[in-house]
Structures are given as structure tokens and as C-alpha cells.
């Protein structure tokens, strides 16, 4: 009988969470520097301008974590419930906590967005409601917060009843809460807005499944060789498809935005506009992720299948740090003017 446990999980958790969060913070700060964010006279101030993207990237990461934790039962499979249940008993309450974070940060983002529109006017309840009623971005964030609350409720039932609550239901509810988020930023050109919004929805869903699945595996399964040998091949196939979808939709939509911008022109606008530079930054992240993913799939996965010790946690932590940077750049990109 193969032992599942190879090392304690505390160190992988810290490395993965720290790398992802630090990568996201670096991505936001570098993105803001590239975009040239500054406090204009009568504007919301530099603190508010920085707080909004930081809140948004925390929203994205918490929602992504819920998706990954909800997906974990499908990655582990149902063949060995006695081995998988100890892992899932940790994943279910973690998903509930992240759902609560997601809901709170989504509501905070609504407040920050509403304040940005009229920073010189006190933010009252009436003004906040008016913002949500009139502005699609506010409606999208509020809808996302409602879905997060639903995830919290469904997750709380799953904590008590286990896999009697289907993992597919939890994944679908979490992904549904991500669908309105592209409308809060990307796809500003009206000539292809509908196509671009659909593309960015695929982009967001692919990134959530990819990043969330990797986080859940490394944090909760990497120290259990038997389970990892079964789950990592399934995730590897998902990650390959997600990489293709995320790269094609993200880079493709960005190039369309630049090509259609007044006074724009490719390839010059890639290096002469903040939007172009941010898009180049995301493309470099995608290239790095392809290299790191290839290393895991072609070099480490065969060893994992044979239950051999590997440096999977270190390589995955590096991949997640780059993913975090891509999330941070994407948040700034979604708010950057194209021209």
C-alpha cells in the first residue's frame, strides 16, 4: 500500500499563498506605474486609486480560490473516498471562508467605484444605490457579491453533508459569479464589444479554473503522493486547455482593442501606450507560465506518477507567483485607457 503523506502541508501552504499574493501585489504596483496613475486635482486621490485595484485583485483571487477548492473533488476522483475525504474536509470550510472574503471585497469594490465617480461629494446610501442602478460595473460587482453569498451558503451545506452536495454545483455557482466581471473593465470598443465580452468571460473562467485548481492541489494534495499521482494528470490536461484559451482570448482581445483605438496602430502602440505595455507584460507572463507548465508536465509529472519525490511545490509556487503578477497586471489593464 502506497503512503499518501510525504511531508507536512504547512510549508507548501505558506509558499503558495505568499507567492500568489506577492505576485499579485507586484503586478498591481508595476501596472499602476506603467499606467501612470496619479492624483488629479479634484480626483479621488492616490490612496483611493490604489485601493480599488488592490481590492479587485483580492476579489479575483478569493473567487479563484473558491473555484479551485470546489473543483478539487473532481480532480481527486471518487475511487478512494477514504483517502480523499480527509483532504476534502479541509477544502470545504476553506471554500466557505474564501466565499465570505469574496462577498465582502466585492461590496467594498462597489463602494470604492462609487466614490471614484464623484470624490468631491460625500458617499451616501442614496448615492451608492444610484451608482449601482446606473452603472453596469456596479451591477456586475453586486451580482458577483450575491453569487459569493450563494457559494457561502452552498459551501456551508457541503461542510455538513460532504459530497452529497455535488462538486459540479459548487463549481458552476462560483464560475457564474465571475461572468459579470469582464463588464466592469475590458472591451471598451463598441465595434466588437459583444464578441470581446464573451472572449473575456472565457478568459476569466479559464484563468480561475487553472489558477484555482493549481492552488488547491499544491496546498492540500502535494504532500500526499498517492492522491497527487491521480489528480495531477487530470489537472495537467485542464491546465493545458486553459493556457490556450486564456492566452488566445486575453492577448487577442487586447490586440483588437489597440488596433481599433483612434490614432492607434500596431505594432507601434504596443510600446508607445500604457495599454500596450501592460498587454506586453501579460504576454510575457503567459510565456513564462507556458515554460513553467511545460517543466511540470514533461519533467515532473512522470515522476509524480511513479510516486517519486519531486520539486513540484517549488515549481508550482513559481508558476503561481507569475499567475499572481498576471492577475495584478490584468486588473490595471482593465481600467487603462486604450488610446
From TrEMBL:
Keywords in alphabetical order, please. Answer: Cell membrane, Membrane, Transmembrane, Transmembrane helix
Which residue ranges traverse the bilayer?
Answer: 20-41, 53-72, 93-115, 135-159, 171-188, 200-223, 235-256, 276-300, 312-333
Q: Which domain of life is it from?
A: Bacteria
Give every Copper resistance protein D domain span.
230-333
> Ligase among the record's keywords?
no
Task: Please tell me whether the keyword Membrane is annotated for this protein.
Answer: yes
Q: Which Pfam families match?
A: CopD
| Subcellular compartments | Cell membrane
Query: How does this chain sit within the bilayer?
Result: Multi-pass membrane protein
One GO biological-process annotation of the entry reads: copper ion transport
Q: What is its main location?
A: membrane
**A Gene Ontology term for the protein's cellular component:** plasma membrane
InterPro entries, alphabetized:
CopC/D (IPR032694), Cu-R_CopD_dom (IPR008457)
Instruction: Specify the protein name.
Output: Copper resistance D domain protein
Q: Which source organism does the UniProt entry give?
A: Actinosynnema mirum (strain ATCC 29888 / DSM 43827 / JCM 3225 / NBRC 14064 / NCIMB 13271 / NRRL B-12336 / IMRU 3971 / 101)
Amino acid at each position: 500500500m502506497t503512503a499518501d503523506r510525504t511531508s507536512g502541508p504547512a510549508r507548501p501552504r505558506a509558499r503558495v499563498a505568499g507567492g500568489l499574493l506577492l505576485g499579485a501585489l507586484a503586478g498591481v504596483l508595476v501596472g499602476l506605474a506603467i499606467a501612470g496613475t496619479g492624483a488629479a486635482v479634484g480626483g479621488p486621490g492616490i490612496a483611493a486609486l490604489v485601493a480599488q485595484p488592490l481590492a479587485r485583485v483580492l476579489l479575483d483571487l478569493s473567487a479563484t480560490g473558491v473555484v479551485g477548492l470546489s473543483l478539487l473533488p473532481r480532480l481527486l476522483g471518487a475511487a478512494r473516498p477514504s483517502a480523499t475525504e480527509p483532504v476534502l474536509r479541509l477544502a470545504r470550510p476553506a471554500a466557505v471562508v474564501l466565499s465570505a472574503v469574496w462577498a465582502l471585497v466585492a461590496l467594498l469594490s462597489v463602494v470604492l467605484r462609487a466614490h471614484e465617480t464623484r470624490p468631491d461629494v460625500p458617499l451616501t446610501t442614496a448615492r451608492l444605490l444610484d451608482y449601482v442602478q446606473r452603472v453596469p460595473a456596479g451591477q456586475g460587482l453586486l451580482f458577483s457579491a450575491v453569487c459569493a453569498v450563494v457559494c457561502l451558503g452552498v459551501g456551508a451545506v457541503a461542510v455538513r453533508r460532504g459530497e452529497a452536495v455535488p462538486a459540479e454545483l459548487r463549481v458552476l455557482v462560483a464560475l457564474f459569479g465571475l461572468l459579470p466581471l469582464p463588464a466592469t473593465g475590458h472591451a471598451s470598443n463598441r465595434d466588437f464589444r459583444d464578441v470581446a465580452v464573451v472572449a473575456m468571460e472565457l478568459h476569466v473562467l479559464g484563468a480561475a479554473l487553472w489558477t484555482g485548481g493549481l492552488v488547491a492541489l499544491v496546498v492540500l494534495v502535494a504532500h500526499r503522493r498517492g492522491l497527487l499521482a491521480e489528480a495531477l494528470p487530470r489537472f495537467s490536461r485542464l491546465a493545458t486547455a486553459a493556457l490556450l484559451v486564456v492566452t488566445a482570448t486575453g492577448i487577442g482581445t487586447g490586440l483588437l482593442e489597440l488596433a481599433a483605438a483612434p490614432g492607434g496602430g500596431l505594432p507601434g502602440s504596443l510600446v508607445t501606450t500604457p495599454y500596450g505595455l501592460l498587454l506586453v507584460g501579460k504576454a510575457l507572463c503567459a510565456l513564462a507560465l507556458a515554460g513553467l507548465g511545460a517543466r511540470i508536465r514533461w519533467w515532473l509529472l512522470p515522476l509524480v506518477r511513479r510516486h517519486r519525490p519531486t520539486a513540484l511545490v517549488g515549481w508550482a509556487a513559481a508558476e503561481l507567483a507569475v499567475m499572481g503578477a498576471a492577475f495584478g497586471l490584468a486588473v490595471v489593464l482593465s481600467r487603462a485607457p486604450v488610446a
